[in-house]
Amino acid sequence: MTDQRIVSICPSNTELLDALGLIDRVVGIDDYSDWPPEKVKDLPKLGPDLNINMEKLVELKPDLVIASLSVPGMEKNVERLAELNIPHLVLNPKTIEEIYQDVHTLGAACGVPERAQELVAELMRKIEQVQAKAERLPHSPKLYWEWWPRPIFTPGSGNWLTPISALAGGSNLFSDRPGDSYTATHEEVIERAPDYIFAVWCGVQADKVKPEMITEREGYDAIPAVQNGRVYVLEEGLYCRPSQRLFQGLEELVDLLLADQP
After folding, report:
1. What is the pTM for the complete model shown?
2. Where are the annotated coiled coils located (predicted)?
């Protein structure tokens, strides 16, 4: 199966393929797949993930296309793959456990089940190490994650950032809201008084976002996170993509929370 030709049309899938040692089989990717940069920079690009160039994809003669529903609107890509009778695998993880399951599914589909098992074990060990660190936190801070500013999109109970927050010793500010995401109001954010604000605007590079774009909003000066200088712009690739990089984000998150303790 080493001559298998794989196309990935979602960044998190491309990252999982690399973690499984399969990036050398990848013959095409979506425009947003940017990691690991040195391995993907020269791969053929097939357009943005919500508008894949299917003609170009067909020309690559893939044996398997790895699609995803983790980004709203990806359904039309999956429908076109089915219409064209192209072998494909659809991932749609919302939780950490489902990421583990997808690793096993991807490993089995590509003939590397042993590597998949090893990878899941590695990720589980990272979680154990983070939990041990998180026990040193004196209290559980409230974490407000902002995916998008206008309107405000933030993770709800069904998204991986709820357990990620808990594993790091904190709590997702909107973990009581059902579903994967929640459209919040500024009034709700102010009323809930988060201890930390994390800007992880989807698809936006961290250097394009400034903390004052949040701190200068009307009424936000009453929020503890703003008063205590705990508004951070984080790399969205470590928190918005359901791949192994999410676990790196978890490690960095617990270190950040611990570093802020007196």
Report:
1. 0.93
2. none
